[in-house]
Task: inverse folding
């Protein structure tokens, strides 16, 4: 069965960076986009960006440009999200989600979420 | 970036009610619009894609409509398990979400 398993909770200080992993199984990792979405406590879903694991191409939401990076290791079917220059407003649950390539896609499988807490 | 605006932000309804949630895009997105349901402590679940296509396993009481900039999610007869937060998402270029609509028990 399709599964996305994310790395564990993180506590970071303001100004630091965090790297979250998302390991895919049950499907061909390089045949689907990996999207990243975050959700602060009690708030809505915020789409951060996508990565095509086959090509390595990425797209980032404008507000994260410059401090967000997606990478992958296809040999272990794992995607990574790294967010730098962390501030308290970045405290949230971060999700990876699978999506088909191109316009019109939707996310049908999601990771369990990784809580990132930014606190001094 | 295309902005997605949902209304209302929350609503109270009773079991059996017909519920309508609207989503407006800041520019035309054709029918590149998805709807998700999220319950507290759970990951989002896809309900509708391409504005009106029901995802596999989703009850037929959920219907989606619209094109261009204006879209609607309708729950024809609200069930106890439908109390949740609903999000629209454009899939035209980015994957931006609306701010969500919380459906609460009246």
Result:
């Amino acid at each position: 069965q399709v599964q996305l398993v994310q790395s564990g909770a993180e506590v970071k200080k303001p100004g630091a960076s965090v790297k979250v992993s998302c390991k895919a199984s049950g499907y061909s990792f390089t045949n689907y986009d990996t999207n990243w979405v975050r959700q602060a406590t009690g708030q809505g879903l915020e789409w951060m960006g996508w990565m095509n694991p086959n090509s390595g191409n990425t797209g980032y939401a404008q507000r994260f440009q410059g401090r967000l990076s997606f990478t992958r290791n296809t040999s272990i079917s794992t995607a990574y999200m790294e967010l730098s220059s962390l501030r308290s407003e970045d405290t949230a649950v971060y999700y990876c989600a699978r999506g088909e390539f191109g316009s019109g896609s939707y996310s049908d499988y999601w990771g369990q979420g990784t809580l990132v807490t930014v606190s001094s | 970036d295309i902005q997605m605006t949902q209304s209302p932000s929350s609503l109270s309804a009773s079991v059996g009610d017909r519920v309508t949630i609207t989503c407006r895009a800041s520019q035309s997105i054709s029918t590149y619009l998805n709807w998700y349901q999220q319950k507290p402590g759970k990951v989002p679940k896809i309900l509708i894609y391409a504005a009106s296509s029901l995802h596999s396993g989703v009850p037929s009481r959920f219907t989606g409509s619209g094109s261009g900039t204006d879209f609607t999610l309708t729950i024809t007869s609200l069930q106890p398990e439908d109390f949740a937060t609903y999000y629209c998402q454009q899939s035209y270029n980015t994957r931006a979400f609306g701010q969500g609509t919380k459906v609460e028990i009246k």
